Amino acid sequence: MSDPFSPELGRLIAGYRRFRENGWSSNRERWSSLSEGQQPQVMVIACSDSRVDPSQIFDVDPGEIFVVRNVAAMVPPFETTPGYHGVSAALEFAVQFLKVKEIVVMGHGMCGGCRAALTQEMRGFEPGQGGFVADWIALLDDAREQVASTHGTHGRPAERAMEQAGVKVSLNNLRTFPCIRSKERSGELKLTGAFFAISDGVLHMLDEGDGHFRPVA
Ligand SMILES: [Zn+2]
After folding, report:
1. What is the CA radius of gyration of the chain?
2. Which helix (H) or strand (E) element contains residue 34?
């Protein structure tokens, strides 16, 4: 009898079977220690884009990084308005309960969310038709003004500037969370900006001193 999966899901199930065969059994000890709890030291905030999987880029094992992925790797500002604050909940858990020592915000090249922020192509769309994306990336509006006035709104230089500015917006918003701000001050927590250039697969790190992203040697 053939599997009842769609071809798309079937590919994933085949991967799961390889994982059970190779990855799971050879690391059984590691999995069993993780079954009692996780102690990741680093939180990564990345884009949902299928090309930028933090575990793959940083080549880490299960249990090592606590990850939030969303459109354009955004962190909203600290807000206590009614609503479902998913990123804030993950941050709170990572910082206050897991006590991660480092938060990395990783933007990336060819980011559709950042491009939409730049072009405003989804502005005014209905929720479910692009409106949720438009609302979410309005987090980039202020940064967008600066990028657009320097680079315009189309082409790679403008897009890359928007992608890198987005990392800085998320870092600034992280610092609006009182628990993050105080732990950064006391040295318990470090915040770092990163950028993965899809074109050449090179990771860049942000120097907050001069605002430049430089390739990791
Ligand atoms: Zn993206």
Report:
1. 19
2. helix 28-34
| pLDDT tens-digit series, residues 119-145 | 999 999 999 999 999 999 999 999 999
Q: Is the pTM of this model over 0.85?
A: yes
pLDDT recorded at residue 30: 83
Sign of CA dihedral 126, 130, 133, 139: negative
Ligand 1 centroid distance, CA of 66 (Å): 18
Q: CA quadruple 118, 119, 124, 126: dihedral positive or negative?
A: negative
* Ligand 1 center to 114 CA (angstroms): 7
Averaged pLDDT of the chain: 95
- Beta-strand pair 65-70/212-215: unpaired
Which candidate, 73, 76, 75, places its Cα nearest to that of 51?
Answer: 73
Give residue for tokens 């969370």. 177
Helix (H, G, I), strand (E, B) or coil at 90: helix
CA of 113 to the centre of ligand 1 (A): 5
pLDDT tens-digit map of 189-214: 999 999 999 999 999 999 999 999 99
Q: Residue 1 Cα, ligand 1 centroid: separation in angstroms? A: 40
Which helix (H) or strand (E) element contains residue 186?
A: helix 178-186
